[in-house]
Amino acid sequence: MGISVFVIDSERTFADALAARLEAEEDVEVVAAVHARTPAQCLIVGRYADVLLLDGDLPERAGIRLCEELCGRDEAPRVIVLSYSSEAERIVDSVRAGAVAWVRKDESIDHLLRVIRGVAQGETWLPPAEVGHVLRLLMAGRQQQQDNDGLLAALTPREREVLACLAEGSGRREVAERLHLSANTVRTHLQNLMAKLGVHSTLEAVAMTRTQLEQLHPGVG
């Protein structure tokens, strides 16, 4: 079964060219490529794709608002933000909105395809040079909002195991294999633990509990 992809970008030429190149792949199906500067009309269509490639350079935070709206629904697509920038602060905003990956628009199509395929399997991806800064910002933001003591106590033992695997760098498929769970069960655990922690993404969940995870699972770090 192929990966269904929905493209939203403010540049018509970029959106069309990207869609055409993705369609050339046997395992990728482009549902639509939309040129939009205010993409509210894309909510319904984007909801039914496996992966959404979202323009992170839309004006007035339109992309962030769309990401929040889509990721807050059932059967939400996995959102990859595309941007000419890789500023950690902007990446953090997208992660908090529910995005699972951030790719610069000047990266190669082969790199983007690797990220798309990984994201479709439950993985996340951030620019390596910005990962540390992004995690620090996420942790700092959460520490300002609430006291992290006891956060893991709200999770079941299995939810903590799933979270620890993610913190060690495992994708969802690897988590399922390591813990001998089905993909649906892993997804359910992730939905439950994110709801308990009050976050919209697994990256944010890992960032806010990293210190406690390191104490309980020395391999995390």
- Overall CATH class of the largest domain: Alpha Beta
SSE-based structural type: alpha/beta
Radius of gyration equals 17 Å
Largest sheet: 5 strands, parallel
User: What percentage of amino acids are in beta strands?
Assistant: 5-15%
> Tally the helices: what do you get?
10
- Global shape: globular
Q: CATH H-level name of the largest domain... which superfamily? A: Response regulator
Order of helices and strands: EHEHEHEHEHHHHHH
Give the low-pLDDT segments.
none
Estimated helix fraction: 40-55%
Characterise this structure.
This protein has ten helices and five strands; from the N terminus they run E-H-E-H-E-H-E-H-E-H-H-H-H-H-H. It has about 220 residues and is α/β, with parallel strands linked by helices. The chain folds into two domains: about 5-130, Rossmann fold; about 145-215, Orthogonal Bundle (Arc Repressor Mutant, subunit A). Strands 2-1-3-4-5 form a five-stranded parallel β-sheet, with helices on both faces. Strand 1, helix 1 (about 10-25) and strand 2 (about 30-35) form a beta-alpha-beta unit. The protein starts with a strand and ends in a 5-residue tail after the last helix. The mean pLDDT is about 80.
